[in-house]
Amino acid sequence: MNDTHGETGQGWYGFDLDGTLAKYDGWKGENNIGEPVVPMVRLIKEMHEAGKVVKIMTARVAPKSGQTVTYNNPYLENHWCIQEPTVQTWAMANYWTAKEFIQEWCYRNLGFVPEIVYQKDHLMLELYDDRVKQVVPNEGWLVEDIATSKRKTVTIDRVKVVDAKWWDRLNWFFIGIVFAGIAWSILSAWMTKPLPEATEKLHEAIHEFMKSQRWEAR
């Protein structure tokens, strides 16, 4: 996805957590985050090392209905990664919010802790998400429909984006007409071809006629 809103300055790249960075097979609580998805973890680390701003965008940290979520727990701030195991386990069970669990996961699996948000803003350049459906800007066509089209290429420019699905239907229509014409030609030729038995009877009839007229054929 490109920055289609024409923003200037440094934007950021968003990564979903469940199903994108971490394996997900159903909700099992805030403290349960799946194993890392290696290709996406490698990508976010490469982008971070290249100096790009990356953020994790996940609904896990969105405020619950009628509640306000406090993310910066004074007890754990700047301490969660150096706790003794027993103290850390106790703190996690009693004080940690969803954000702290994600931070701890990032520290273990990414080696750094990016900003964690639940909303996009006008500076978001790209979003990597297992549920997102990318749309061609200002056209309303799904990129996945174009990508899965049987067409070899799709023309995309500032003026026009070819609707590949419509084009495929038109192609198949003309292909169908061509095949129908060929089939009709073959069928017509077969139906008009004299049958061997009919040809033989015709020759016999001609021979008998000639005999009756005393034009014995030699």
How is the biggest beta sheet arranged?
Answer: 4 strands, parallel
Structural class: alpha/beta
Fraction of residues in β-strands = 5-15%
**Number of alpha- plus pi-helical segments:** 6
Principal-axis shape equals: rod-shaped
Question: Can you name the CATH architecture of the largest domain?
Answer: 3-Layer(aba) Sandwich
Overall pLDDT confidence: 75
* Count of the separate structural domains: 2
Indicate the CATH class of the largest domain.
Answer: Alpha Beta
CATH topology of the largest domain: Rossmann fold
Straight-line N-to-C gap: 88 Å
Q: In percent, how helical is the residue content?
A: 25-40%
Low-confidence stretches: 67-93
- The total strand number stands at 4
What gyration radius follows from the Cα positions, in whole Å? 36 Å
Can you put this structure into words, describing what you see?
The protein has 218 residues and is of the alpha/beta class. The chain folds into 2 domains: 12-132, Rossmann fold (3-Layer(aba) Sandwich); 133-193. It is 39% helix and 8% strand. It is built from 6 helices and 4 strands. The protein has helices spanning 38-49, 85-94, 98-109, 143-147, 164-192, 196-212, and strands spanning 12-15, 53-57, 115-117, 124-128. The protein has a 4-stranded parallel sheet, covered by helices on one side. Helix 1 (38-49) links the parallel strand 1 and strand 2. It starts with 11 loop residues before the first strand and ends in a 6-residue tail after the last helix. Residues 67-93 have low confidence and may be disordered.
